[in-house]
Amino acid sequence: MLPTYVPVLILGAAALGFAAFTLALSQILGRPRPTAAKSSAYECGVPAIGNARERFPIKFYVVCMIFILFDVDAAFLYPWALIFKSLGLFGLVEMGVFMALLGCGFVYVWRVGALDW
Asked: How far is CA 90 from CA 22, 34, 77, 85, 98, in A?
């Protein structure tokens, strides 16, 4: 049983060895050159202005939750599509109910204006 895992162990050891080698080489060859610009906070190419503890509008979180909702929808559709033929009519009805519920949620979110910026 162990001989079947030897190639995997060799590959893992090679990956760890390469990572350790490159880290050690960068420490040996690279000189730290700290400057004020390098030490400052960097966010999306824009200089940091103001307090980092300011409040964000709730719409950012709502859009994030909506994205997660529809991402989970896609995650459920893929395995269902793989075994669609073996589920038959019952599987089709169940997925129809699931999609209808998600559709109602999407229409509700659209109607209350959560998707408007």
From this structure: 56, 65, 15, 10, 12
